[in-house]
Amino acid sequence: MDIYDVMRTTGAVRRFTGDPLPDDVLHRILDNARFAPSGGNRQGVHVIAVRDHSTREALAGLSETGARRYIAQKANGEGPWNPLHPMQVSPDELASTAVPADMTAPLLTCAVVLVVCVDLGVVAALDQDLDRIGVVSGASVYPFVWNVLLAARNEGYGGVLTTMAVAEEPGIKTLLGIPDDYAVAAVVPLGRPQKHARKLTRKPVSEFVTRERFDGESL
Q: Domains in the chain, please, with CATH?
């Protein structure tokens, strides 16, 4: 596929056909995705490919904490998990919030789940002393995750970058034997999509690019 076609049609895939994703195709996806950039080219990514159904059920269960808060806050008119605006949902309201099965279904119906970790011992978090949530260290892992999704699209497969389970990172580490100095960055279900996106909806360039300053003229 043309690279621009791949970029314009790589949507979030949550519904899968049940077809297998063979190891040789998965290897090819990862073999190409590994050329993503990372800070200092230190390549601190580690991927755990999970096919075992019981392990995926456990990951789905661990995802419910993040999903429950997401649903409860959204129902309350809040931005879920927003770092600037504290949650206003009460503990009782949160506890009584049901998590729909389709929130965790992709982890169970896909062909393979990739748990993407990053070695915190090699990332450069230049924003660690700023008075805000850190984001810069993600530059050493999320380009790789996006490359995985682009490569999967090129192979006729698809997936979605999820982070719901990360709210229960200690549980994920115990489940999968992840060392303490690694962070879980994403949980990515991959498989054959029931349908591929033909047209994605995104803001036009003029709405998010300005010249010279944040309040400058639109490009």
A: 3-52+103-207 (3.40.109.10)
Can you name the residues that pair with 11 across neighbouring β-strands? none
3-state helix, strand, coil in the chain (%, to 5): 40, 15, 45
| Residue among 155, 201, 209 at smallest CA distance from 1 | 155
Q: What is the pLDDT of residue 128?
A: 97
User: What is the DSSP secondary structure assignment for residue 59, as one 8-state letter?
Assistant: H
pTM score, whole prediction: 0.95
Kindly report, residue by residue over 88-120, the tens digit of the pLDDT: 999 999 999 999 999 999 999 999 999 999 999
Contact 187, 149 (CB under 8 A): no
149 neighbors 88 (Cβ within 8 angstroms): no
Q: Which of 114, 109, 74, 107 is nearest to 93 (CA)?
A: 74
Mean residue pLDDT of the chain comes to 96
SS3 at position 96: coil
**CB neighbourhood size of 46 (10 A):** 15
Rounded to the nearest 5°, which phi and psi values hold at 158?
A: -160, 175
CA atoms of 178 and 46, how far apart (whole Å) = 10
Please report where in the chains the tokens 């915190």 appear, as a residue. Answer: 120
CA angle 200, 166, 126 (to 5 degrees): 85
